[in-house]
């Protein structure tokens, strides 16, 4: 196990509405942006016959595919 000051630490907030990831390094926290450039991601996962959807993509299709979408 790394001691104090050895490398970055990663924190994951799995919220019921939104989730985010932060990295502690160089005495500060940086929140990591997702593929859309947002610092938070909707806590949704959806499944179709051909793909797995996460975040905004899953949230946007929940009305059409509620039985295969998991959220908050």
From TrEMBL:
Pfam families: HSP70
SUPFAM superfamilies: Actin-like ATPase domain
Coiled coil: none
Keywords tagged on the record: ATP-binding, Nucleotide-binding, Stress response
Name of protein: Heat shock 70 kDa protein
An MF annotation (GO) of this entry: ATP-dependent protein folding chaperone
